[in-house]
Amino acid sequence: MNDNPITKEGYDKVLTELDHLIKVVREELRVTIGEARELGDLKENAEYHAAKEKQSQVEGRVSQLQGIVATSNVIDPSTVTSDKIVFGATVTILNVDTDESHTYQIVGESESDMKIGKVSYNSPLGKSLIGKEEGDAVIVRAPKGDIEYEVESFEYK
Fold first, then answer.
1. Which residue spans of the chain are classified as CATH 1.10.287.180?
2. Cβ distance 89 to 77 under 8 Å?
3. Mean pLDDT on 63-84
4. Could you give the CA distance from residue 127 to residue 138 in angstroms, rounded to a whole number?
5. Which candidate, 6, 122, 155, places its Cα nearest to that of 75?
6. Mind giving me the DSSP string for the chain?
7. Residue 95: which residues within 8 A CB-CB, separation 6 or more?
8. What's the rounded mean pLDDT across residues 140-151?
9. What is the rounded average pLDDT of the residues 90-118?
10. pLDDT greater than 70 at residue 1
11. Nearest residue to 93 via CA among 84, 101, 81
């Protein structure tokens, strides 16, 4: 069941990280654990325990990434044509109170990162933008109170 939308760019990043963890990090840990085992007493071997803990973290991340890959519905925003804002849109909005413009791309959960302008379609901002058009007012319910935005423009790239 592929019901987890993700952009092509986000999907490619997941595949790259997964490939690196499996081919590089796992192999490095296998060697480190093997060398630590050869040192003898494992009860007091800090290198061994640190490597085993890191191995556990890496395997958890590998499982998480494999889950994303298995359930992803990859969407290439450059192929989207819509006269309304939908998943994958890059949207420029104006904060009505501060008169500041911000640009965000609406992306999947696993790739959202406000610091680089990627907002989840499930976030309050993402949900409020979906279905809107240029010139529409958008009210986002935030912890500090409602914020009003106006949609200045959007595109699919």
1. 4-74
2. yes
3. 93
4. 10
5. 6
6. ---EEEEHHHHHHHHHHHHHIIIIIHHHHHHHHHHHHHTS-STT-HHHHHHHHHHHHHHHHHHHHHHHHHHEEEE-GGG---SS--TT-EEEEEETTTTEEEEEEEE-GGG-BGGGTEEETTSHHHHHHTT--TT-EEEEEETTEEEEEEEEEEE--
7. 101, 102, 147, 148, 149
8. 91
9. 95
10. no
11. 101
Report, at the CATH architecture level, how domain 77-155 is classified.
Answer: Roll (3.10)
Q: Note whether 56 and 89 are within 8 A (CB).
A: no
User: What six digits make up the tokens of 81?
Assistant: 């044509």
How does 64-88 read in b/e, with b if 16+ C-beta sit within 10 Å?
ebeebeeebebbebeeeeeeebbbb
Q: Read off the pLDDT of each residue in 85-97 and give the average, rounded to a whole number.
A: 95
User: Which is nearest to 21 in space by CA: 76, 69, 73?
Assistant: 69
Cα–Cα distance measured from residue 1 to residue 95, given in angstroms and rounded to the nearest whole number: 38
Asked which of 8-22, 32-46, 47-61 is least confident by mean pLDDT, the reply is 32-46
CATH classification (class only), 4-74: mainly alpha
Domain span(s) for CATH 3.10.50.30 in the chain = 77-155
Tokens of 138: 């958008």
